[in-house]
Amino acid sequence: MGETSPDLYPTTTRYTDAEGQRGGAGPALSALLTTWLPAQRWFASKGDLTEVTIEARTAIAEIGDRTVEQVLFTVPSPIGIQRYQLWVAWTRNYPDRYAHVLIGETNGEFAYDALYDGDVSAVVLSNIADGLSVGILDFAPEPGAEIDRSAHGLVIGAEQSNTSIVYGNSSILKVFRRLEPGLNPDAEVHRALQAAGSSHIAAALGVIEGPVAGKRTTLALLTGFFANSAEGWAMATASVRDLMAEGDLRADEVGGDFASESLRLGKAVAQVHADLAAAFGTAELDADAVRDLFASMVAGAELVAGHVPSIAEHLPAIRAAFGRAAAAGVSSTGDGAGVPVVVQRIHGDLQLGQTLRTLTGWAIIDFEGEPSKSLAHRRAMASPLRDIAGMMRSFDYAANHSGGPSDSQHAYRAQEWAARNRRAFCEGYAAVAGYDPRDMGPLLAAFELDKAVYEVAYEHGHRPTWEPIPLQAVVRLIKSGETA
Questions:
Q1: How many domains does the chain have?
Q2: Contacts of the segment 333-339: beta carbons below 8 A, 24+ positions apart
Q3: pTM recorded for the entire structure
């Protein structure tokens, strides 16, 4: 727990009736959110929203004519109650500067998303540095963390399931919009890897925590910021563009060849996996657990086949591929045959977009796991091959990012680039891990196939013209069982 906040911070209000607060009572704010939320990219329920229940409102600060509060609320969904947090600023004057994040007006006051307000982000950073407790919220620095509270905060552009505020060149605060009660893996893993001395992550600097559904929950994570870095996806796709512009050159002859970076990235991922294994331990699946693992992949493919014809067409071969993997993954504690399936904590959503090329090497970011999965799933042990398969698929997407295999020449050159970089990544991984992922044969193929089937389902529903990209991977994997 941090130091108790001064009197200028009121205590948290929990709404069980229509008691008022600046900006109106809970029902007034709920009405505004019912209209505003469906248009927000981080809000998962995109259909008609009929109910928003305000669970708690914690007043954070009075800044000029603005009152700032943190709001916890729930919404119903087909898969159950979903929980979110929102930081709201109230003002009696129309906020021209923040009109793009205006929530609405009620009782003569305007509400807007306070995370975009530089004054608010400055207060949040100072609270973390000072270790304040504000109502039900605990702002806490990591032991020994050096936080530059003078740095100006700016929300970065591409908002996904969370919102991130960059403070100058020193730190970045990730605010988790959708909440699941408990410790977020991003904070948990960063702390563990930092304690292990990992050189491939950002330094953990602080957190905001508070109770959600009765459990202490991570609300935001502050880490170091890699200034002058480049995202792995941007570098990879630039390399592909260079290749496509040189019609008569091979991938290894083009100036923007990415293979050397893929090799270094493979080494970095292997080292992070080793650090995670040391921090959290490992386990070996017994034969029943191996069968259950690949049976769940079969079940997932069957579910997709029910509404995606291209997967239905290949379903028998997909089942056979997962069956080969199950047969290959017999526990060494059984009859001694097969390849042991070892599980540990992993990244959980690894792809080129979760990597940064810094001035000193590759860094891995965003250890939250797949946001759509349950917290228990994201914190569970899994095979490192799942992360590796995610990278294999990411190379494939980077190769085809310009619009997919529209002609045979483009398709051939994209496949050439992807194969070259997949090989380089696996070679780099093997140099550190002591084994080549490609030697895992049907096991790695199954993890990549599982990912590709999911991608086909996604593209079928969202970008039909891109469906051939993962589908060609499905066909390759079920025919050859090879991943590189």
A1: 2
A2: 333/284, 333/286, 334/286, 334/287, 339/440, 339/441, 339/443
A3: 0.88
